[in-house]
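Q: I'm building a small set of examples for a reading group on sequence design. Run inverse folding on the following structure and report the sequence directly after it, with nothing in between.
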């Protein structure tokens, strides 16, 4: 996901959607670190393996014997 053109608007929208009461200083802190947080979150997704099965698959029932 590309970084939004207006980082302040993106952070403000997220904070308001979450219903968080922030001071101006707290909002400024979030605005300053948002690009790094967004880049970190975006780096977790690798398009090449999007449809691959996870390495561990949970099977809720025991395997059928025989």
């Amino acid at each position: 996901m590309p970084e939004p053109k207006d980082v302040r608007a993106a952070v403000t929208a997220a904070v308001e959607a979450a219903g968080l009461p922030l001071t101006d200083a707290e909002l400024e802190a979030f605005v300053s670190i948002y690009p790094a947080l967004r880049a970190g979150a975006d780096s977790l997704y690798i398009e090449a393996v999007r449809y691959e099965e996870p390495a561990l698959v949970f099977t809720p029932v025991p395997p059928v014997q025989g």
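The CA atoms of residues 52 and 58 lie 15 Å apart.
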